[in-house]
Specification:
The chain is about 15% helix and about 10% strand. It is mostly loops and about 100 residues long. The protein has a 3-stranded antiparallel sheet, with no helix packed on it. It has 1 helix and 3 strands. The radius of gyration is 14 Å and the shape is globular.
Length: about 100
């Protein structure tokens, strides 16, 4: 049963890549389905291994990055889904 004073952190872990992207042998996240299309000028392969993407501020940087993208046929900067990272699943990630 859920307790209101539960101290467990949610989500318990963060996905390494945006939803529907996969991690390749070089540890890059790859948009294998082409969901972001070619109009975003975004590479289909992105590395999140740099220091800018580490720690709490790194999670915020990932959220900001995901927010600048959009799926094919969606309005610009509508964001892509990334469970635990995107602004819809974790709106307070970049606060504080």
């Amino acid at each position: 049963m859920w307790k209101s004073n539960n101290s467990n952190k949610w989500p318990p872990f963060y996905a390494e890549c945006p939803d529907h992207w996969v991690k390749d042998n070089s540890n890059n996240c790859v948009d294998v389905h082409g969901l972001t299309g070619k109009t975003n000028n975004v590479p289909r392969s992105v590395s999140f291994e740099g220091d800018i993407y580490k720690g709490a501020q790194g999670l915020c940087q990932k959220q900001r990055w995901a927010k600048t993208l959009n799926y094919v046929n969606m309005p610009p900067n509508s964001g892509i889904a990334w469970d635990g990272i995107d602004v819809n699943s974790n709106p307070d990630l970049c606060i504080g």
